[in-house]
Design a protein that fits this description.
Largest sheet: 5 strands, mixed, barrel
Strand content: 25-35%
Number of domains: 1
Mean pLDDT: 94
Low-confidence stretches: none
CATH class: Mainly Beta
Radius of gyration: 15 Å
Shape: globular
Oligomer: single chain
Order of helices and strands: EEEEHHEEHEH
Structural class: alpha+beta
Amino acid sequence: MEAKNQIFRKTHYEVVKVVDGDGIIVRNILTKVEEDIRLYGIDAPELTPCRKLKQDESETKIAGQLLMKMAYESYDFMRSIVKPGDPVNIIQERNNLADKYGRTLAYVELQDGSILNEMMVIAGYAKAYNKIFCSDLPRYQQLSLDAKTQKKGLYLYVDQF
């Protein structure tokens, strides 16, 4: 992660649940307060029928059923990386703290120092997402293009999602 904006790191968190391919729920182990985290700079297909799934279906010309099948692959891949109880740090850019739904926007740093957001894009199970800005977006766009070129993850089935 190369975030250049003013950032701050929140420590003492653990994973409670993987929500989907671009979101998790974490809990502060000291205060027991849970936060719904939307990962900066990435997007994965939707798991269930919703407005965003219809929008993605329209924009990509990919059937909703296939998008949801891909969403489960993305979800399963993320669950292979992080599990309930895993310690994580939450890294945020000071001027971009929450999305329009009130979810905390963050990079999720694993115990080994790797960044979950980046891992999802490199493996092709999420794409760069420019509707929520983050400092690492240009890098995520390049990583996403690399995954697409190499037919990794979801790019094994489609050229876009």
